[in-house]
Amino acid sequence: MRRLFKIVSLAWLLGLGHGYPQNGLPKPKNGSTYVIAHRGEHNGIPENSLAAYQKAIELGCDFVEIDVRTTKDGEFVSVHNATIDAYVLGKTGKLADFTLSQLRAMDIGIKVGEKWSDTKIPTFEEILALCQDRIGIYLDLKEADPKTLIPIIKKYNMEEAIVWYLPASAHKELMAIKTNCPECLIMPDPGKKRNIKEVLDTYEPKYMASDMGHISKSFVRQLHANEVKVFVDDDEDDPEKWHQEWAKLLSLGVDGIQTDQPEALIKFISSIENQ
Fold it and tell me: Of 75, 131, 240, 274, whose CB is crowded by the most CB atoms within 10 A?
C-alpha cells in the first residue's frame, strides 16, 4: 500500500489528470480531488437530512449529493428512494403519493436513533439556503422537472454551484437545463467509454459522471483532453478495501469521488498529500 501511495502522490506532483483550467467551480478543499458526500454525511445521521448536509459542510466536503423528487402537490424534496418505506416507522407508499405537509409530518430520524427523532424530510429550497456559499451540490435528478427547479436555483444564485447528474440518455431533461439555464453545470453519465464522443458532441458538458464499472485511465484521459472533469461513485462496502479503491481512483486522475464515507476519504486524501 505504501508503494501505491507513492505512485498516486507522484502522479499528483506531476500534475497528471489535473493540468487544465478550472471550469467554474472553486478548487477542491482537500488536495486535488473533490469530495462528494453521498446523501450527506449520514453515518449515524438520517440520510438526505439537513443534519447530514450540515455535517458534510463541517467536515470540509466539496459537495453534498441530493436526490430531488416531487411531492403530490408539486413541491420538491430530497429523498433517495421512490418510497418512504425505509425511512418512516409504520408507513409505506410512494413519495409521489404524499403532499408536502403529509411528508413533513413524518419522522425520518427515529429509525436511526432516538437523538434524531422528529427529523423532517428537507425541501429543495431549505437545502439551497443551507448550502449557499458554503458547499456545492451534486443534484441527482430523480423525479422533478428541471425547468421548475431552475428559477429556485437562480433565486439563490447557485447556477454554478450545482452539478446536475443525469444519464446521458435523459436527452429531454439535459436539453431543458441547457436551454433554460446555459450557465448551469450539467454532468451526464455516458455509461460505456464508446459513448463519450457522442455525449461530448451532443451536450458539450464541462463535467461527466461515471462509476467503478466503467471508469478507466483511457476514459479519464479522453475527457481531460476535452477539458471535462470526471466525477466517479465509489462502491466498496468493505472498510478494509476503501483505501485500495480510492487509491485506484486517484491514480486514474479522477477529479471527484462520491462516497458514503466522506470523513474517511478526506483523511485518506490528506495522508496521500502529506507523503
Answer: 131
